[in-house]
Design a protein that fits this description.
The protein contains 9 helices and 12 strands. The protein is α/β, with parallel strands linked by helices. It has 2 domains: 96 residues, 60s Ribosomal Protein L30, Chain: A, CATH 3.30.1330; 153 residues, SPOUT methyltransferase, trefoil knot domain (Alpha/beta knot, 3-Layer(aba) Sandwich), CATH 3.40.1280. The strands form 2 sheets. Strands 8-7-6-11-9-12-10 form a 7-stranded parallel beta sheet. The protein has a 5-stranded mixed beta sheet with strand order 1-4-3-5-2. The termini are far apart.
């Protein structure tokens, strides 16, 4: 691997790493930032292209066994890295990756997580991690949903964004309805009470799209009307009336994925 020691914070080769609190590497730019050794390891192990890595010397030693031979590796003192990034990068490891081109939901997908207008990147990253952990096949995000490849969302997902197809809808709700029309998936909305079926009583169909809305407003009224079923997690009302959306997503996914084999069509 070509190791390039950098001492000048104005070095143009580090422009993608500059002022990361403000520089989100927009989706149309085709790049993203991965942060921390564990996430960078996940990126390198994925099918996505890696443009470069920026590390401190101690982190270079830790990563030396996994860095591809031709990958540009910029090595900088901690103070240089911090000045370039605009904050203290206490994990000492950053990388620039290439966003997946033409991500699509697999034709044989039987469980798709659909996220409508989630703007909190922590919740978004946690939901991606949950979806990967419980075996969802893909994720569809609405046009106004936060960027799954924003640095913090990637870090919270522990790199799961690199291994799961994530598709941003360009035509909402038409792309949602295509899951039913073209792929035969049942649209299941996760909601609070109000006539919804308790999760423990819901019998999973063979193929489903689980819809989650932003924390607070939940699914938009129009989206709720499009659902084939509404499912809820009963609450002990005297103690709490809802769960964090990422926590709720984990409960829904775990429960629904247990029934995949049992609900599969038999021949």
């Amino acid at each position: 691997m070509p190791q390039i020691f950098v001492t000048d914070i104005k070095d143009a080769r580090l422009d993608d790493y500059r002022n990361l609190k403000d520089n989100r590497l927009a989706e149309d730019g085709g790049k993203f930032i991965a942060e921390s050794e564990g996430v960078v390891r996940q990126l390198i192990a994925s099918a996505l292209a890696v443009h470069s890595v920026l590390v401190t010397t101690p982190r270079l030693d830790a990563l030396s066994g996994v860095l591809p031979p031709a990958l540009p590796v910029y090595v900088a003192a901690q103070s240089v890295m911090d000045q370039v990034a605009g904050f203290h990068v206490h994990r000492g490891c950053l990388a620039v990756g290439a966003r997946p081109a033409n991500a699509r939901i697999p034709d044989d997908a039987r469980t798709v997580l659909v996220l409508e207008d989630l703007v909190d990147v922590d919740n978004l990253g946690a939901l991606v991690r949950n979806a990967a952990a419980f075996g969802a096949d893909a994720i569809l995000v609405s046009p106004r949903c936060a960027d799954p490849f924003y640095r913090k969302a990637i870090r919270v997902s522990m790199g799961s964004v690199f291994h799961l197809p994530i598709v941003r809808s360009q035509d909402w709700p038409a792309d949602l309805l295509e899951l039913r029309r073209r792929r035969g998936l049942t649209l299941v909305g996760a909601v609070l009470g109000h006539g919804a079926v308790p999760l423990s009583s819901y019998r999973r169909p063979a193929g489903l799209a689980l819809l989650l809305g932003a924390e607070g407003p939940g699914l938009a009224p129009g989206t709720r009307k499009l659902c084939d079923a509404l499912v809820t997690i009963p609450m002990a009302a005297q103690r709490a009336n809802s769960l964090n959306v990422a926590t709720a997503g984990a409960v829904f996914l775990y429960h629904l994925m247990q029934a995949v084999d049992a609900s599969a069509p038999t021949t």
